[in-house]
């Protein structure tokens, strides 16, 4: 589920890559400073996109610094922190907390339950700051779990649940831009859920696990056109927003990077198909 | 309100790029955070935002205003509806929905997208047609799914696709209509509806032109921490 909204590294300039890293590291440092070190494990590309996207829309003042960290103890790296890296850190905690709790409820994954427990006090802080997005995350993930248990074969319904989750996360500001940004996020979330399901389809079918596409007459590759229809709805909104700052990074993600995970999975399925044949 | 071109300091007929640039320039000048001592800044910002909306989405703005009027009327008359905020957005043709006006509006569209009775239609198909015209799309799908696989011809796929279009089920609409076109490539009606709902795919491909969409991933290169994170928190696609 996480990691679809990423960059296509080879098509970014060194400067753009450095800027992307700086946001990424900014969220990481905020997680460590505001919450706890272990929260930094929850860092994701998807919420890095959120931070860069909102920073582009609102152009807030940025705090730039050069820092070391555990993973980079000797070489200092650029770090950007602003109100949106802070929000991205908040949502990282919230999403990860709920996802771990769900994984625990679903298949008694002790490790995930342990991690959720480790994030409890951090999550309580986030919930106080952002009650509505937290509630939406909880509700939509619960709805997804229920749909899975009911063996729901409606991929559009499933995708709309994660779409609503993303809309809830992106729609927190409740201002002039919220209707557009929420709907943009809705379609992005729908894409993520569909692509995730398509990538898992072959292995889910083999292992008899739930997948919303199980009873549908298409395979992962055939869905590419339908996936572009969903992304197209997101792009229609995106292209009308007054974005300038870091626009190239955002476009790189939406038009290239967003296919990386999907392509990798389709290629693997093809290779496995040839091996089985 | 004032002429939106005037608000943004633009000449008539300015391009979308020019409108965006003008917005950014004005936002830098009037953003309340940058003008803490100016009480009129927030109001000015609202005016700028509205002007931007009008210029970027003229046709949708009117439709949205119409819906707002209807909503206000409903609220006044204690009609249920959503609470404030999340879930109540109309944005572009409804939250997440197809552009109905574009697909079903206009005489030509109706000609191609109306589900008309055809001689030879089985009882179930007739039932489904009645349900579609009556707006009972889930019932129609239920009826269509009761038809045995051996009788599922292009028309069956088309009717399923049509029901899904009405339900805003993008993926199922596209996959069923693609199958209908595949099975009956000469049917103009099927092609037309498929083309209409695939419009976002075409605009996506236009925006994406010149960018690689066929890149594969390698194990994470940004940060070791991220690699751990991706694998741990579910979503790792490397294994």
Structure write-up:
Chain A is built from 10 helices and 2 strands, in the order ααββαααααααα. Chain A has 277 residues and is mainly α. The longest helix of chain A has 30 residues, at 178-207. With 239 residues, chain B is mainly α. Chain B has 13 helices and no strands. At the A-B interface, helix 1, helix 3, helix 6, helix 7 and helix 8 of A face helix 2, helix 3, helix 10, helix 12 and helix 13 of B.
Summarize the structure.
The complex is a heterodimer of chains A (277) and B (239). Chain A is mostly helical and 277 residues long. Chain A has helices at residues 14-34, 45-58, 83-107, 110-129, 131-149, 155-170, 178-207, 224-238, 247-255, 260-276; strands spanning 63-67, 77-81.
What is the number of beta strands of chain B? 0
Distance between the termini of chain B: 58 Å
* Helical coverage of chain A, percent range: 55-70%
Q: How big is the Rg of chain B? A: 24 Å
Shape of chain B: elongated
The oligomeric status of these chains comes to heterodimer
H/E series of chain A:
HHEEHHHHHHHH
Biggest interface found: A-B, 90 and 66 residues
Distance between the termini of chain A: 29 Å
Q: Helix coverage percent of residues of chain B?
A: 55-70%
SS elements, strand count of chain A: 2
**Biggest β-sheet of chain B, characterized?**
none
How many DSSP helices of chain A?
10
For the biggest β-sheet of chain A, the strand order reads 1-2
Low-confidence stretches of chain A: none
Alpha plus pi helix count of chain B: 13
SS-derived structural category of chain A: mainly alpha
Proportion of beta-strand residues of chain B: under 5%
Low-confidence stretches of chain B: 78-94, 233-239
């Amino acid at each position: 589920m996480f990691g679809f909204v990423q960059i296509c590294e080879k098509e970014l300039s060194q400067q753009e890559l450095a800027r992307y890293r700086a946001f990424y590291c900014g969220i990481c440092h905020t997680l460590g400073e505001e919450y706890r070190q272990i929260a930094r494990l929850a860092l994701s590309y998807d919420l890095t996109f959120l931070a860069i996207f909102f920073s582009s829309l609102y152009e807030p003042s940025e705090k730039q610094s050069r820092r070391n960290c555990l993973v980079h103890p000797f070489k200092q790296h650029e770090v950007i922190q602003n109100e949106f890296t802070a929000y991205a850190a908040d949502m990282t905690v919230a999403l990860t907390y709920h996802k771990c709790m769900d994984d625990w409820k679903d298949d008694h994954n002790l490790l995930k339950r342990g991690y959720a427990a480790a994030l409890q006090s951090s999550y309580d802080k986030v919930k106080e700051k952002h009650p509505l997005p937290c509630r939406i995350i909880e509700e939509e993930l619960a709805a997804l779990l229920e749909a899975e248990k009911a063996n729901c074969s409606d991929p559009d319904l499933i995708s709309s649940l994660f779409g609503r989750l993303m809309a809830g996360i992106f729609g927190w500001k409740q201002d002039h831009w919220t209707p557009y940004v929420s709907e943009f996020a809705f379609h992005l979330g729908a894409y993520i859920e569909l692509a995730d399901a398509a990538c898992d389809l072959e292995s889910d079918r083999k292992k008899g696990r739930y997948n919303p596409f199980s009873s549908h007459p298409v395979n992962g590759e055939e869905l590419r056109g339908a996936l572009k229809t969903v992304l197209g709805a997101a792009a229609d909104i995106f292209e009308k927003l007054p974005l300038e700052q870091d626009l190239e990074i955002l476009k790189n993600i939406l038009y290239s990077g967003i296919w990386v995970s999907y392509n990798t999975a389709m290629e693997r399925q093809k290779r496995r198909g040839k091996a089985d044949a | 309100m004032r002429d939106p071109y005037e608000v943004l300091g633009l000449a008539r007929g300015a391009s979308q790029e020019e409108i965006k640039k003008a917005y950014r320039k004005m936002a830098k000048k009037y953003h309340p955070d940058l003008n803490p001592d100016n009480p009129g800044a927030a109001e000015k910002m609202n005016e700028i935002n509205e002007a931007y909306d009008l210029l970027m989405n003229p046709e949708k703005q009117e439709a949205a205003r119409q819906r707002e009027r209807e909503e206000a009327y409903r609220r006044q008359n204690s009609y249920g509806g959503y609470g404030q905020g999340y879930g109540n957005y109309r944005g572009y043709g409804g939250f997440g929905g197809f552009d109905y006006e574009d697909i079903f509006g206009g005489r030509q569209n109706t000609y191609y997208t109306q589900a008309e009775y055809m001689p030879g239609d089985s009882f179930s198909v007739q039932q489904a047609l009645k349900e579609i015209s009556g707006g009972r799309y889930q019932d129609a799908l239920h009826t269509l799914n009761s038809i045995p696989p051996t009788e599922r011809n292009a028309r069956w796929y088309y009717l399923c696709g049509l029901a899904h279009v009405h339900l805003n089920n993008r993926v199922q609409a596209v996959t069923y209509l693609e199958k209908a076109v595949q099975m009956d490539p000469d049917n103009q009606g099927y092609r037309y509806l498929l083309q209409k709902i695939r419009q976002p795919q075409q605009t996506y491909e236009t925006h994406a032109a010149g960018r690689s969409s066929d890149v594969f991933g390698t194990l994470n290169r940004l940060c070791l921490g991220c690699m751990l994170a991706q694998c741990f928190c579910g979503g790792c696609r490397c294994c």
